[in-house]
User: Fold this.
Amino acid sequence: MFPGLHVKNRGIGGNRTKHILGRLREIVQMHPRKLFLEAGVNDIWDHASLDTLKANYKKIVAEIRTTSPQTTLYVQSVFPVGDPFNELGPQVDSFNIWLAAYCNEGKIRYLNIFPLLANKGYLDSTLTYDGLHLTDKGYEIWKKAIDSLVN
Assistant:
């Protein structure tokens, strides 16, 4: 999605924040110039408590800041969910409210992607094939939102 740029996608389908914590050190030891973090919906889908999700996010940020302090960190909101995951919407909303405040307090760059993908508070049905994962059109919207920051 970013031709000509040295970009590595370290996202793994189904990963929860505990999995990210388990492999984060190998990523940050490479001292990336920038790191874009978007995680949490799988934790919510797996019924992890929001307290656990918040604690894991704090650990992830601490690991990045400690191991690679020169890395510019961008934390992205959890994307909206749609059918058949609408029941997760309130937890996603609650977590995103906390995440925005946490990033503001910690002077972390927060990217609110949620409204770009949402229609009436849920993932726009034209941007997903299953209510959770983005289609090419959804990824294009996401890419456009972060494109200037990746360069």
User: Anything to note?
Assistant: Residues 25 and 63 are 7 Å apart (CA to CA). The helical segments are 17-28, 41-45, 50-67, 89-105, 114-117, 136-150. The beta strands are 34-37, 72-76, 109-111, 118-119, 122-123. The chain has a mean pLDDT of 94.
